[in-house]
Structures are given as C-alpha cells and as structure tokens.
Design brief:
alpha/beta; 4-stranded mixed β-sheet; about 45% helix
C-alpha cells in the first residue's frame, strides 16, 4: 500500500507539473486569451458579483469552483478587464461557502504546440446536475451564455462553453451529432481525446490522471485508496470514469466524423484519422494515446518535452514508418507543420536555446531533413496559388477516403450488430460524407479544399473545341496542362465555378474565339445570377434534420437556349441545374419536350423554381414559352 501511495504522489506531482507546462504554452501562444481564460473566466464562475462579467441577478445561480485558490493579486491584475473598480473587500461577501462547480477544463489544441491564433477555446464546465437541480442548472446556463457573449465581443476570442454533467462523462454520454459535437457515435473516442488534451483551469484533478499506468484494476484501486486515505483529500479529485479501450465499432463513426470535419479543417482531420488507423493494428487496440502520454508524463525528467499534439504526430509517424509508407509519413509531417504554423527559418534551425514554440519544434523538424527551400514554400502556405491548393487538397482527401475504406472494412460487423441510437448517428454522418464525396450521374463535384477560404482565380479563359468546353487559369494558347474544368456543356462549368467559389469580383473573364454561339456576357450574367441561388459547397454544415429526412429537390434553375442565344422564337435546348436537401448539385441537359415529365417526377411541394434566358433572346414570348414547358 505504501508503494501505491508513492505512485499516487508521483501522479499528482507529474500532473501538476504537466498542467503548469500546458498553461505556460497557452500564455506564450496567446497572452491575452490565456489571461481571460485562466484568470478572468474562473473568477467570474467562482463568484457571482454584479461588477463581474456574466453576473446573474439570482442568488440561486450555482457558483464556486471546488479547490480553487486565487491570491488577491489576481484581482488586482484583472482591474483593466472591469468597467468599474472592484476591490477584494467588495467581493468578500460573495465568496460562496458551498462550491458547486466541479472543474473547468479546456479540451483540444489550446495549451499545446497545435494552438494557433485560429484555435477555438472549447471549455468544459463540469457539474453534478443531480445535486444542483434542473431549475438552477438553467441559471448557470444563462450565466455561461452571457459570459460567452461578453468575452467574444470584448476580446474577439472564439470561445465555447459546454456544461457537462459528471455522471454523463462517466457514462460517456456526449449527446447527439451537431456541428460542434461528435455525439453518441464516438463515446470512447471523445473520452480519450478529453483525457489526452485537457488542461485543468481550476477545480478538482481527474482521478484518471493520477492513476498509475498499470494494467488491471488500477483505476478502481486508486478510487478506493483515496476514499480511505489520511494522506490525501479525496475531494481534491474527481471520478470522470476510466477508459481502457475503444470498441472497434466506433472506428467507423470516427472515420465518418473526420471526413465531415475535413470540410472545415482537413489538416487536423488527417492527423486524427491517422491516429484512429493506428488503433486498427493488431496489438494496438488497448494502447490508447492518452495512456501513452500519461505514462510519459509520469516518468518525465525535468527537461523532457511532452506535448499532446506532438505525441499524435510521433505516434502516427511510427505507425506508417513500420509499414514502409514514407509517402504518408511525409504527408502527415506536412499537415502537422502547416497546422502548427511555426514558420521556421534557417536561423531557427541553428538555435540552441529553448523556450518558445519555434525552438521546441526545431529539433523535430531538423530530423526530417527538409531543405530550406521546402520550408520557405510551406511558410508561404497562405500565398499559394489556386492550383497548388487544389493539388494538395486532392492528396489530403485521397488519404482520408482510402483510410475510411479500410476502417469500414474492419467495422462491417457493427453495421449489423449496433444499437439503434448509434445507427441513427452513423447514418447522419454517412449521408453527409456521401453528399460531399460520392460521385453520381450529373452531380457537380465538390472541390476538396485545404482550408476553408482559398483564393479565387485571377483570370479564367473559356474555350470551345471538338464539342468540348473547357476553362483554364491562363490562356489556352500558352497552356498545355490539365484545364480547371471541362464539360460538353458550358452551363456545367459555370455551375462548378459557382458551387466551388473559384471566382470572385476581381476575376477577369475571357472568351477564346470559337465556333459556338455563346457570348461571354451571358456566361458572366449567369455566374452572378446563380451565385445567389447555389450555396458554397464547402460552407454547408451538418444539417441534422435535412440529413435525417428523405432527399428532395429544393431548388431548380431552368436555363433555356444557353448555347443558341440568337433563337428568339422558340426554346431549342434546356439545361437544368437542381440542388437537393442534402445540398448536392446536379446539371443535366435535355430536349424541351422532356422537361414536363422530368419536373413531374422531381418537383415537390417545397421546390423553388427559377428560369434564365440569354440577354439576346430574353423576350416575354420566350419567357412564357419556357414556363409553359413545365
């Protein structure tokens, strides 16, 4: 028992030191944000005072963070954050006797080398819902909303508070799929990520983090030991549940979730997908990265660098090296570098001092053998050309698709044996991935972006030859490579450009002389008219309600005589663009006589219809004729 007590003591010291390191990284990466999140936020949760942000005028509002200690100097250092002067004596009477907030934790990349100026602050506010009661929980929810709005407006921090119940965390009950949560389909994976990435802002230390990294019943043993211990205060620790493995059936959900999240942040999703892939390896099922990191923290020497984001890279790098797949290793390193954004220079590679983010990463990157020219190219990531983004995007998403197929093959049994609530969550994710990635007849392909906002083409040249339209970023006379897009109908190219937002107000359009009758002004007119009707393929979130329902056509654009604009007496040809409730866009060409039957089949009660005609042939007669066809 004495040995076990020593292990618990070691765990407490190791976690405290590690948590302090994570806070220091947060402070170096974002000094103002760290001050708000580490000092101001916990004070506002601890004390419900009229002079503090987030005040709720109800004495029943839960407050008081357990185990929180803060010196008077903290209040003084926060003076500039308040609209009125607040002294220690002002708030003495508001310090709660009964503390009801179990803990405040960050989850995700903040407090690691992966934190950048774009990183969100995702914070779990952990409470015992049963002890507080539902009515008073509503007051705390209101307080968090007020505080979130105030912090976001005052300091432009992207902060999200999640009110979490102790019992729910213990049972891995994390709710349904939404844009900001991975839901019940990924119960154990979310628990693993929480333990792997958390920073304790204030509150009770998670029992898991001080439990020895041994096999067997260490977690239960630690819990029983603390309850009986005279050496430690059991109330200083919180039981949020153990995690020992991730069921194979969750891997499919993880793959689908990362395919979905890749639409916003593919660099991060590639690394997370690779981590999930390592759990497929025989013998690795019970070796979770959170447990590996905890073991490293427990045995760390004074100057050891243990960073959760770097540990992800080292783990997946080792996995693919063992398979001899150096191409994927290089892709993962590239994603890691671009995500961390250290902008390392030649001088950084020869530094010997330690401390800042760049120096901490220099040794790792030096070992990769990258040339200075290659580093400069990556440092110029935000200035890459459209074509360079497109090539890299294809490489990223190809890896994601290949790995997902592997995970699906391994998790096939889950599709038969899973529970209904998990089936619903999985099906929502599957449909979202299908809508974005799966090719279908007539469907306009979504561009596989590297980041949410990519540049538009500066110039676009339309040309027509051998019954084929194509658009290029440079004049075809000086171009021998692959075109940006090609199709038998110009409307399909226009729809692709609108759907993927590869042009903007600064783009210059050109038409190479050709044998078609299409005029450039009609192309430009249709582009801008469609811009208000067709959404950006990469900006559409996870619309749970739409994905749960059967698909229906929500918008139809009927385009008449696009390639015969001089015809003014009749409709000679029709192009139809339509988008369904899953935001899949299709382009089809048909004879005018086929439109009525097609519309009877596809049109629904919620379908909106627009028509479009070239400027030269846009007469009342032709508008009436086109409307009469359906």
């Amino acid at each position: 028992m004495k040995d076990f007590a020593t292990k618990i003591s070691t765990g407490i010291r190791a976690f405290t030191h590690y948590n302090r390191y994570k806070k220091s990284i947060m402070q170096k990466n974002d000094p103002l944000g760290a001050k708000v999140i580490l000092d101001l936020f916990p004070l506002c949760i601890h004390i419900n005072h009229p002079g503090l942000p987030g005040y709720v005028g109800d004495a029943d509002c839960p407050c008081g963070v357990k185990c929180m200690e803060w010196p008077a100097s903290t209040l003084k250092s926060l003076g500039s954050f308040f609209s009125t002067r607040i002294t220690l004596s002002d708030i003495q009477g508001y310090v709660p006797r009964n503390r009801e907030i179990e803990g405040l934790f960050t989850i995700g990349s903040v407090g690691s080398l992966g934190q950048t100026k774009e990183s969100d602050y995702d914070i779990w506010v952990v409470v015992d819902r049963n002890a507080i009661g539902n009515k008073r929980i509503l007051l705390l929810e209101r307080k968090l909303k007020i505080l979130q709005r105030w912090i976001s407006s005052q300091y432009i921090l992207d902060v999200h508070f999640f009110l979490m119940d102790v019992g729910d965390i213990q049972r891995n009950n994390f709710g349904m799929v939404s844009q900001e949560g991975s839901g019940s389909a990924l119960k154990n994976i979310l628990k693993e990520e929480f333990y792997r990435t958390l920073t304790l802002i204030e509150g009770r230390i998670p029992l898991w983090w001080i439990t020895p990294s041994d096999n067997g019943d260490s977690y239960e043993k630690a819990s029983r030991f603390l309850e009986r211990s005279l050496m430690f205060e059991a109330d200083d620790f919180i039981d949020l549940g153990d995690i020992t493995f991730i069921p194979e059936q969750e891997l499919l959900g993880a793959a689908l979730w990362q395919m979905h999240k890749a639409l916003d942040d593919p660099l991060k999703s590639v690394l997370k997908m690779a981590l999930v892939a390592t759990y497929l390896e025989p013998g690795n099922e019970n070796r979770l990265l959170c447990e590996v990191i905890k073991k490293h923290v427990m045995g760390a020497r004074r100057d050891d660098l243990i960073d959760p984001y770097l540990e992800v890279l080292l783990t997946v790098e080792k996995y693919y090296k063992s398979k001899g797949d150096m191409q994927t290793v290089e892709l993962l390193r590239k994603c890691f570098y671009l995500k961390v954004s250290p902008n390392i220079t030649t001088n950084d590679l020869i530094k010997v001092d330690a401390g800042d983010k760049i120096t901490l990463l220099a040794d790792t990157i030096r070992s990769w053998g990258w040339s200075i020219r290659y580093l400069k190219d990556l440092n110029g990531f935000n200035e890459w050309s459209v074509e360079k983004y497109r090539r890299f995007g294809d490489e990223l998403h190809d890896y994601l698709k290949r790995t997902t197929v592997l995970l699906i093959r391994r998790a096939k049994s889950f599709l038969v044996n899973s529970l209904l609530d998990q089936d619903v969550e999985m099906e929502i994710l599957r449909r979202r991935v299908e809508a974005f990635y799966v090719s279908k007849e007539g469907k306009i392909e979504c561009e596989k972006r590297v980041k949410k906002k990519e540049p538009a083409y500066e110039e676009l040249y339309f040309s027509y030859k051998n019954d084929q339209w194509q658009v290029t970023g440079t004049s075809p006379e000086n171009f021998s490579g692959k075109p940006v897009m090609s199709a038998s109908r110009v409307v399909r190219i226009i729809a692709w450009l609108v759907y993927n937002k590869r042009y903007d107000a600064s783009t210059a359009f050109h038409m190479i002389p050709n044998t078609s009758l299409v005029v450039l002004s009609d192309i430009q007119s249709l582009l801008w008219d469609l811009n208000s009707l067709i959404p950006d393929a990469n900006s559409v979130g996870l619309d749970r309600d739409s994905l749960m329902d059967k698909k229906y056509v929500k918008q139809v654009v009927i385009i008449g005589n696009m390639e015969t604009p001089g015809v003014v007496q009749s409709i000679k040809e029709i192009d139809v663009l339509y988008i369904n409730s899953w935001n899949e866009l299709f382009s089809i060409h048909m004879k005018p006589g086929s439109l009525r039957s097609w519309m009877a089949k596809m049109r629904g009660a919620k379908t909106k219809i627009s028509i479009w005609l070239p400027r030269e042939g846009k007469s009342k007669h032709l508008v009436g004729t086109l409307n009469s066809l359906f």
